């Protein structure tokens, strides 16, 4: 069922934002991308041929772009407006000599974040905004956004990343006649200038080491020659997968994931004491001290929670990689918090969706959320000068600046 304008503006999607500033950054990016894409689709329909296709006649052609300032609830936004040679193109989304104000946010959210079908989008635009845009134009628009995702996903990457955090986030997606869980695989890299970068997103079914193999292979194919440290959850076979593609990487399993998994089956009355004893392991000053703390943990809890104790021994080599580094590096490699924070923000922008109608819809929404979040990633990580010097002292010639 389609929502009217009042329902949309009062929906749970908007209520999740704390204030206008929090909401504004997301909307502004959606607004600019959405309007520019709508305009491109309208011009294609007007001329009768796509941008990179042979034109069907010689009477009218593209003629570059003009700029237009459009006022929204959050201020003025500059957009690029395509032009044609004989000036017969009359945009419907942003008409000539007019400045669309409130309501365009809802239009773009509907198109990009709601994951509607082309016919539903066409109907909502007509009912709420009185725009007559055909489903063929909408198809051109959505295809263009998907092309944008593909281009971003296949862009070249840096040859070296100091750290790469890897994690997955699960969404419900319609597959034929069923709604099933699918995983968006994400990789965040720490560049040699201290800034973070999302290396890509990949969509697959349930998280598995075999799919991660294709992710790592893709990262390699896009120009990454060396990763110094990887940080992952303790998915079975994950470290061997990384080893096969980046054999020289130091492979750290997320300690927080280990803590959660070990405590999963501990009864409530034991959890506080059990967690306190685990903390002595990963906060130890050296790996030798951590090993001693694990032995004490074993003696105390093995009779009651043998599986939890055994999991520490099974993953010990990968859990304790961070002990080989100075404190400033330890803080950012013993957990996947950096990528989990990204996942949390992606959830914030997509949680209004119970499920997505297609694979393209979920990829499009996650991509747009990433674009908004990473616009703020403009500064190096804290203590970058110290961290870089530590990396250079440890890894030497493997770091190319």
Please, could you describe this protein's structure?
Helix content is 50%, strand content 17%. The chain is of the alpha/beta class. It has a domain at 5-152. A hairpin with a 5-residue loop joins β4 and β5 (196-204). α5 (118-129) packs across α6 and α15 (337-350) packs across α16 (359-374). The N and C termini lie far apart (54 Å). Residues 100-106 have low confidence and may be disordered.
Structural class: alpha/beta
| Overall form | elongated
Range of strand content: 15-25%
Write the H/E string, N to C: HHHEEHHHEEEHEHEHHHHHHHHH
Q: Indicate the mean pLDDT.
A: 83
Unreliable residue stretches:
100-106
Largest sheet: 5 strands, mixed
What is the first-to-last residue Cα distance? Answer: 54 Å
Rg on CA atoms, Å: 25 Å
Give me the number of helical elements. Answer: 17
What's the total count of β strands? 7
* Helicity range: 40-55%
Going across the biggest sheet, name each strand in turn: 5-4-3-6-7
Question: What are the main properties of this structure?
Answer:
401 residues, alpha/beta, five-stranded mixed beta sheet
């Amino acid at each position: 069922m389609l929502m009217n304008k009042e329902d949309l503006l009062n929906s749970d999607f908007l209520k999740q934002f704390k204030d206008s500033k929090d909401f504004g950054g997301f909307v502004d990016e959606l607004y600019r991308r959405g309007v520019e894409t709508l305009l491109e689709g309208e011009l294609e329909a007007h001329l009768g041929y796509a941008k990179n296709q042979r034109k069907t006649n010689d009477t009218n052609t593209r003629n570059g772009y003009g700029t237009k300032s459009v006022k929204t609830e959050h201020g003025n936004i500059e957009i690029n407006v395509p032009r044609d040679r004989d000036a017969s193109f009359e945009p419907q989304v942003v008409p000539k000599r007019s400045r669309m104000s409130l309501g365009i946010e809802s239009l773009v959210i509907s198109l990009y974040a709601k994951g509607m079908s082309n016919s539903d989008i066409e109907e909502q635009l007509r009912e709420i905004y009185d725009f007559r845009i055909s489903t063929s134009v909408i198809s051109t628009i959505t295809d263009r956004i998907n092309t944008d995702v593909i281009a971003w996903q296949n862009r070249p990457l840096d040859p070296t990343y100091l750290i790469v955090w890897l994690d997955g986030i699960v969404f419900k997606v319609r597959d034929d006649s069923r709604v099933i869980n699918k995983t968006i695989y994400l990789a965040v890299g720490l560049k040699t200038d201290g800034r973070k970068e999302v290396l890509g997103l990949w969509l697959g079914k349930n998280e598995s080491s075999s799919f991660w193999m294709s992710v790592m292979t893709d990262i390699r194919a896009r120009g990454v020659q060396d990763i110094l440290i990887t940080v992952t959850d303790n998915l079975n076979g994950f470290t061997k997968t990384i080893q096969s593609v980046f054999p020289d990487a130091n492979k750290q399993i997320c300690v927080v994931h280990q803590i959660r998994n070990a405590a999963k089956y501990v009864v409530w009355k034991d959890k506080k004491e059990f967690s306190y004893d685990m903390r002595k392991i990963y906060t130890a000053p050296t790996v030798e001290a951590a090993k001693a703390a694990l032995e004490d943990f074993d003696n105390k809890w093995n009779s009651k929670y043998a599986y939890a104790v055994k999991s520490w021994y099974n993953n010990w080599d990968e859990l304790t990689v961070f002990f080989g580094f100075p404190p400033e590096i330890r803080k950012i490699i013993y957990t996947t918090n950096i990528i989990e924070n990204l996942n949390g923000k992606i959830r914030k922008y997509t949680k209004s969706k119970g499920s997505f109608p297609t694979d393209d819809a979920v990829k499009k929404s996650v991509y747009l959320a990433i674009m908004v979040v990473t616009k703020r990633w403009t500064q190096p990580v804290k203590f970058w000068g110290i961290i870089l010097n530590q990396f250079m002292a440890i890894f030497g010639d493997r770091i190319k600046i």
